[in-house]
């Protein structure tokens, strides 16, 4: 993301602007009259983080579903910020935040809700929110259109509230008063990727034609000096098959990886049918091997705030301090290699996941939801939500090498992969769509636009 640390001073003091503000602040309808109050717990002109505290009131006569409500806090400048919910009476787990750029060096923080209702006469009570620059530098906030220095709640029309896409309170600022398309709620289908992996071998020209890269380059992750071998990737009976092996030496270790060539995948739904294995197909067991399905953005520099990675990682023999099989789902904000510093959220289960599994990741509304065989496995949000388009990848690699004799080979397989851009599809819906594509004889489809 671009960074421009110069802020544009805005004047909101003219009588004409005040009249317009008062006019716009009237609710969209008498039946659905929403009102916002604001205070701040960080009133300084310059601050390390802004701390807007909000509460919504329903002064109307009908219940308002909170998932129809969007709150917009307007800022000047194009700095990269991170949002967090410190505490909320209605629970921070239902509160989302997303920064949206505007023209002329401005942006806004859009706050939404995933659940809850606001009954007539009711209030949400405290929403204790905060945001800070991704590089943790202090910034000036008193030139932001929505900022106010008051430390006690007061009605505040410099923050706009939309209900079901209609302005219901406040004064929109900047170039985009229309809440659609909504960046936190996907606007609808934006293209589909499906592949049944009906290829002859890793040299099949259709792989490159259809946007796949079979890795042959050196480097991490995993054992230093290992080979990433295209020839160790095969497609028997239409199954992507990754055979990774080691003879106990760095130079005798083979890793495998298949990746999309284009970084064009962001919000929406990802799915794959993956076979994890506990035991090697040949040789003695015991290696710390990682079997994966994930999306990733490259790390440009240490603690790059635009880095993103959403992982399914299965370790059949443990590793990273774990003694036995474990399945991780991990959402990455960023990391630093030397010295190691990880900024991520992870959920894990210590059990065998050998066999075929339907894996689904939903990326929408500030939440990353991981499903295994239709079961919600993890829900991550906040700073771990991705900011940039990603690749889709499958790889199998060794964390380190164990003392064993002979060559041992581990196998991971993938039946199909599916992605629906800008659309939340249930795990059952993913399976239904894949079955429909196969029933109509479709082996490959890619309508996701290139960046």
UniProtKB/TrEMBL annotation:
Region (Disordered): 169-192
Gene3D superfamilies with a match to the protein in the record: 2.60.120.200, Endoglucanase-like (2.60.40.710)
Signal sequence, start to end: 1-25
The UniProt record lists the keyword Hydrolase: yes
Keyword annotations: Hydrolase, Signal
Record domain GH16: where: 134-425
GO BP annotations listed: carbohydrate metabolic process
InterPro entries: Beta-glucanase-like, CBM2/CBM3_carb-bd_dom_sf, CBM3, CBM3_sf, ConA-like_dom_sf
GO molecular function terms noted in the UniProt entry: cellulose binding; hydrolase activity, hydrolyzing O-glycosyl compounds
Keyword field contains GTP-binding: no
Ranges where the CBM3 domain occurs: 30-174
Pfam families attached to this UniProt entry: CBM_3, Glyco_hydro_16
Name this polypeptide is given: Hydrolase
Annotated source species: Nonomuraea glycinis
């Amino acid at each position: 993301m671009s960074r421009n640390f110069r802020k544009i001073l805005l004047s909101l003091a003219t009588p004409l602007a005040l009249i317009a503000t008062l006019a716009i602040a009237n609710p969209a309808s008498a039946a659905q009259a929403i009102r916002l109050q604001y205070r701040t717990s960080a009133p300084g002109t310059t601050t390390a983080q802004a701390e807007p505290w909000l509460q919504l009131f329903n002064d109307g006569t009908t219940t308002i579903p909170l998932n129809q409500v969007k709150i917009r806090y307007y800022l000047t400048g194009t700095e990269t910020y991170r949002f967090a919910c410190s505490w909320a009476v209605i629970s921070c787990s239902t509160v989302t935040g997303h920064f949206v750029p505007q023209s002329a060096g401005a942006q806004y923080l859009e706050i939404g809700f995933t659940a809850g209702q606001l009954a007539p006469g009711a209030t949400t009570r405290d929403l204790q929110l905060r945001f800070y620059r991704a590089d943790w530098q202090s910034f000036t906030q008193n030139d932001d259109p929505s900022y106010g220095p008051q430390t006690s709640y007061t009605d505040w029309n410099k923050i706009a509230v939309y209900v079901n896409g209609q302005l219901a309170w406040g004064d929109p600022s900047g170039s985009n008063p229309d809440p659609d398309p909504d960046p936190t709620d996907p606007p609808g289908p934006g293209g589909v990727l499906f592949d049944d992996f009906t290829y002859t071998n890793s040299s099949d020209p259709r792989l490159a034609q259809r946007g796949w890269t079979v890795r042959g380059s050196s480097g991490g992750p995993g054992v230093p000096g290992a080979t990433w071998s295209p020839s160790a990737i095969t497609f028997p009976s239409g199954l992507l098959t990754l055979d990774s092996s080691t003879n106990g030496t760095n130079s005798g270790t083979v890793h495998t990886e298949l990746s999309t060539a284009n970084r064009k995948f962001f919000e929406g739904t990802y799915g794959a049918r993956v076979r994890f294995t506990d035991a090697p197909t040949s040789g003695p067991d015991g290696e710390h091997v990682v079997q994966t399905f994930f999306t990733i953005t490259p790390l440009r520099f240490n603690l790059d705030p635009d880095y993103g990675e959403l992982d399914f990682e299965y370790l059949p023999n443990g590793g990273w301090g774990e003694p036995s099989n474990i399945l991780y789902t991990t959402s990455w904000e960023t990391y630093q290699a030397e010295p190691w510093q990880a900024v991520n959220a992870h959920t894990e289960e210590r059990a065998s996941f050998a066999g075929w599994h339907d894996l689904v990741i939903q990326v929408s509304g500030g939440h990353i939801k991981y499903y295994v065989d239709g079961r919600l496995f993890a829900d991550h949000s906040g700073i771990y939500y991705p900011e940039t388009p990603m690749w889709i990848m499958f790889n199998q690699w060794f964390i380190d090498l164990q003392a064993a004799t002979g060559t041992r080979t581990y196998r991971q397989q993938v039946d199909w992969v599916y992605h629906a851009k800008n659309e939340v599809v249930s795990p059952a819906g993913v399976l239904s769509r894949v079955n429909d594509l196969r029933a109509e004889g479709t082996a490959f489809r890619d309508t996701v636009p290139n960046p």
